[in-house]
Amino acid sequence: MTTTDVYEAIAHPARRQVMEVLRDGPRRAGDLAGSFAMSRPAVSQHLRVLREAGLVAEVRVGRERHYHLNASPLRAVNEWTKRYQEFWESRLDELGRILDRP
Amino acid sequence: MTTTDVYEAIAHPARRQVMEVLRDGPRRAGDLAGSFAMSRPAVSQHLRVLREAGLVAEVRVGRERHYHLNASPLRAVNEWTKRYQEFWESRLDELGRILDRP
DNA sequence: TTGACGTGTAAGGAGTTCCTTACGTATGCT
DNA sequence: AGCATACGTAAGGAACTCCTTACACGTCAA
Fold first, then answer.
1. pTM over 0.70
2. Which of chain B's residues have a Cβ under 8 Å away from the Cβ of A74?
3. What DSSP line would sit under chain A, residue for residue?
4. What is the pLDDT of residues B64-77, one digit of tens each?
């Protein structure tokens, strides 16, 4: 099992969208594919990346595969962002904001 | 100015490392490059991605360029992860965790 | 003014991502 | 058994990432 870094896994909008759908509960692979403009195999490949990052889990039910959200790896991302909270909450960022919109 | 998505900007470990260094205060481009195994232009290109994502700001001081952290865009990432907090804090994830480590 | 310094950009190439279509495989239905 | 269903995987190609070396340009110092 080739593992994928969480940060890479969430980098693609389609994969974040898959996670969004799974918030409402498990979904069959085909149903997930149906929600996207891209082909079914493309979605399947995104699901693999999410699985390798531990963000979704797969349950085989007969010939179907049910995908479940597994948010645990996001905890690390949340904690990483929190290390910067003091910066975006203070005025330390103001210089940056000014320079960004000249 | 070609903008870069924040999620893509933070996907690369080297760029997160640059941000980590900038937590301690502004740094000159050359000093940043000195902290990395890769070449100076490579770091410069990572800095561009961070700048395009609004995560760093550049201040020209004579022939130097000082890079400042601008954490504001991370706020959105933080809030995105928080939408999943209820999942990693509850037992909803347990199925996922079990299936991940069979 | 000449040369060193600090830095971004161009060019190029190996590797990766992300899509497509075609195929393989297991399960279920009659 | 025979065929449809639900899905993953293989193959292939366009586009992008991420590194390198070579170069360009503004700034400072003698």
1. yes
2. 81, 84, 88
3. -----HHHHTTSHHHHHHHHHHTTS-EEHHHHHHTSSS-HHHHHHHHHHHHHTTSEEEEEETTEEEEEE--HHHHHHHHHHHTTHHHHHSGGGHHHHHHH--
4. 999 999 999 999 99
